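Researcher: Please translate sequence to structure tokens.
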Amino acid sequence: MKILITGVGGPTPRSFAIALKKHSATKNLTLIGTDINPLAIGLYQNDLFDETVLVPGALHQDYWPTIERLIKEKQIDAAVILPELEVMEWSKRKETRDLPCKVLLPDYSMAELLVDKSKMTDVLDGLDITPPSVTFNRNLTNFDEVFDKLGSGFWVRSTSGTSGLGSLKVDDLQSLKNWIQINPNVGQFIASKFLPGRNLACKMLYFNGKLLRTACGERVNYIMAKVAPSGITGNTSFGRLLNEPELVKEAKRAMDHLFEHTKADQHGFFTVDFKEDENGKPYITEINVRHVAFTQVFAEAGANFAADTLRLLMDDADFDHQYQMYEFEKDLIFLRDVDSLPILMKESQLKQKL
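Model: Translation complete:
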């Protein structure tokens, strides 16, 4: 089986590949990676990818001719599209033309909505599942509406993008103005009530109109957190694997509403991010249209969404299509860092000071 994985300079595609190579029962896998950056480390990880190719960016005129030629020449069976911009391009093409190989992607209407946190928040308004929020342009001069609705001590971030782009807890007007100025590439911001509780993620795998697999985790600390004023870099350094059926119910309630609103098919892989308030009530902060960087940790713990995805795409007759929430051993955590494979262990095994 030959699988194309795009964006291998990023941690998520490499994590997906590791989940397949190290934690999947599927044999005879050939993984072919692509990236747009010649400095992308994944292009040179020969132990992980059997072959890698430098390609144009997703918006470049040569992108599709290059990808189509690559898929034809290498006889690719399925593609795993992970950078957000490429997800958008492939989903858009799916609306009007056949895709060059099998791939698990959401409908474009759903992807377009979810990449814009402001639009997603507006659609979910009324379900009491998103925090009070205000969206504003970087050129705004009067912030009375923001402070009147949210008070001081709110969370501000970019309405689009990943890895905590433009994120900061703001306590006063001057701090907000300063933050806008030092983020010149952010055009639209969304300010939301600050939520001090747990940072949770619910992974959801839909296929042909049905929710098939879910699993939950908690992000506690982030890699290189000190370099970001918000402390959030998008890559978890310490996290927990959780059994949270009530969180899954909330995620499904939101997704059902979004599918209905967009008229999209219930199809694709999504990561629903929650933050809890001071009372432990979870609110959705964003929904990713793809896997996230600790995919391999879930796989090592028995929730191999990467393998599930391929089995579904390749019509594996032995795949159980009954819904399953993956459950983990209690007290299970993971540790991650730059240039190191994650460690899965019990939290009770963490070392104590002498």
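Researcher: Any highlights?
Model: The first helix runs from residue 11 to 23.
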